[in-house]
Write a structure and sequence with these properties.
It holds the Pfam family LacI. This is LacI family transcriptional regulator. GO terms for molecular function: DNA-binding transcription factor activity; transcription cis-regulatory region binding. There is one protein chain. With 335 residues, the chain is of the alpha/beta class. It has three domains: 53 residues, 434 Repressor (Amino-terminal Domain), CATH 1.10.260.40; 125 residues, Response regulator (Rossmann fold), CATH 3.40.50.2300; 134 residues, Response regulator (Rossmann fold), CATH 3.40.50. 46% of the residues lie in helices and 16% in strands. The protein contains 14 helices and twelve strands. It has a six-stranded parallel sheet. Strands 7-6-8-9-10-12 form a six-stranded mixed sheet. Helix 5 links the parallel strand 1 and strand 2. The longest helix has 17 residues.
């Protein structure tokens, strides 16, 4: 590994001179500074985080607040987190992950310590308690998600209301007039998590316009919870012929229970999911779905955050347009 002493020897200066060039603590002649910087590039020297911070007044660290909750589908969260880290590294930034459910206290810790230059928030609620503190701090921030009030923030998200609308349009176009939505776990709605609320709103709004009745049932996603939800749905609405699923863990239990009930997919029941592409493709039936573009959301979030750090971007809301892909799980409503 290349050391500071190696750079000093290559540049023909003292180690302290290299240190001063990195930290900016003392004035160094432009000629000497250029010689040291050339040696740094030539040798591929990577100064430690402390030296970089002294030189630039930055830590080159982004804090990613990603609460890992048991009621959320962790693989999607991790896909976003990995994509954030990968894209941040391309910009010369490292990522500090905060996975606890600390809420505002985590914001206070990050902002107060000065450890991170900027913050990315995930699992955004409509009335998120973290946002007032983050807004007051003046720290550059991007939300992967959409709160009720977006003033003062840049937000990147899939247009989940549009996703719900697309699902309603697809099933209505196939002749379905009674549909049920299998949603996230009840706790997700109790927290008023933005993506879940907006999907239901978009589905219901478009369904009303199209003359389609909707029944929404939150579900933990376990086999037992899905069996209970399905029984309630067919008891309350025996004419249901289409399902919209926004709960990755509930997909296979739903398909299995429909088979046990001798309801064929898609001949008797159509199923449309809002989920990652791998979930849609790897199930026992290839699902018609609206894909959650996790990597694209992460890339957009990082790009916008770097622009804000550099003072090159204003606050804005970026909604990725949903796309529904028709596969084997949806078909005409039974006569």
């Amino acid at each position: 590994m290349v050391t500071l002493a190696d750079v000093a020897q290559h540049a023909g200066v003292s180690a302290s001179t290299v240190s001063y060039v990195l930290s900016g603590k003392r004035t160094i002649s432009e000629v000497t500074k250029q010689r040291v910087e050339h040696s740094i590039r030539e040798l591929g020297y990577l100064p430690n985080a402390g030296a970089r911070a002294l030189a630039s007044s930055r830590s080159n660290i982004i804090a990613l607040m990603m609460p890992l909750r048991t009621d959320m589908y962790v693989p999607v969260m991790m896909e976003i987190a990995i994509a954030v880290a990968t894209n941040a590294r391309e910009h010369g930034f490292d990522v500090l992950m905060l996975t606890g459910e600390e809420g505002p206290s985590a914001v206070r810790r990050v902002v107060g310590s000065g450890l991170a230059d900027a913050v990315i928030l995930m699992d955004v609620e409509l009335d998120d308690a973290r946002l007032p503190l983050l807004r007051e701090s003046g720290r550059p921030a991007v939300l992967i998600g959409l709160p009720a009030q977006t003033t003062g923030f840049t937000c990147v998200d899939l247009d989940f209301a549009g996703a719900g609308s697309l699902c309603a349009e697809h099933l209505a176009g196939l002749g379905h007039r009674e549909i049920a939505m299998i949603g996230e776990a009840p706790a997700v709605y109790e927290r008023k998590t933005g993506f879940a609320e907006r999907t239901v709103d978009g589905l219901r709004s478009r369904a009303r316009e199209l003359g389609v009745r909707v029944l929404h049932r939150p579900c933990e996603g376990t086999y037992a919870a899905m069996a209970s939800a399905l029984g309630q749905i067919f008891t309350e609405r025996p004419g249901v012929t289409g399902f919209v699923v926004q709960n990755e863990q509930a997909v296979e239990p739903l398909l299995s229970l429909l088979r046990q009930d001798r309801r064929a997919v898609p001949e008797d029941i159509s199923v449309v999911a809002v989920c990652p592409e791998q979930v849609a493709l790897q199930g026992s039936v290839r699902l018609t779905s609206v894909t959650i573009p996790a990597r694209e959301m992460a890339r957009r979030a990082v790009d916008h955050l770097i622009a804000k750090i550099e003072g090159k971007a204003d606050d804005e809301v970026v909604l990725l347009q949903p796309e529904l892909v028709t596969r084997a799980s949806s078909g005409p409503a039974p006569v």
